[in-house]
Specification:
alpha/beta, globular, 191 residues, 5-stranded parallel β-sheet
Length: 191
């Protein structure tokens, strides 16, 4: 992928995951249809839009407003909605970064995601690992849970996904950031 100076900045978490995401993406092809669920402010979404036919969904109004200013410049589209209003199906690639842990009924949502993909389509998702690491920062940002690898695999397979591969990333930087976020979040709770 060519480095473009006009791409929006990455969040720190996006930097930690981008190399793994990039290694798992299909070759660039503007005919491949990508659905990015919870695209945030489009740091990764803009990069995907330079490679594929891109549609991002972002339910948070503030993040959507930022993403909707960024994504069209790269040929993509962003909607201020969730998957339950989407009628389009048959996507080649579905991406979702740090979203599923915010959804109360994750098993129903994952089944919906599987339905949105065409047969043989690919899901790339990232989510916080290890339920025993659930802390104050998770609560503050609205996480319902974290995922132990065996549980995540079971959920994905029950939803209809096959050839599930799980890769851990972010250590040790991610763990240090997580510890700092938990300290700050715990102090907010005491105020």
């Amino acid at each position: 992928m060519t480095h473009r100076q006009d791409l929006p900045p990455f969040s720190l978490n996006s930097w930690l995951r981008w190399d793994i995401v990039l290694r798992n993406l299909p070759p660039a092809d503007s005919a491949l249809r990508v659905l990015d669920i919870g695209c945030g402010q489009a740091g990764i979404g803009a990069r995907l839009a330079t490679r594929y036919h891109y549609l991002g969904l972002e339910p948070d109004r503030e993040s959507f407003l930022v993403a909707s200013q960024r994504i069209p410049a790269f040929g993509g589209t962003v909607l201020n909605t969730t998957t339950d209003t989407l009628t389009e199906v048959g996507f080649d690639l579905l991406t979702s970064f740090e979203v599923i842990e915010h959804i109360a009924d994750d098993s129903t949502e994952l089944r919906r995601w599987a339905h949105l993909l065409k047969p043989g389509g690919v899901l790339i998702l990232s989510t916080p690992a290890w339920q025993h690491r659930f802390g104050a920062a998770d609560e503050l940002v609205g996480h319902h849970r974290r995922y132990d690898p065996a549980h995540l695999r079971q959920l994905l397979e029950a939803a209809g996904f096959t050839d599930v591969r799980i890769t851990h990333f972010g250590m040790p930087i991610g763990y240090a950031l997580e510890a700092a976020r938990n300290l700050v979040s715990a102090r907010r709770d005491r105020k």
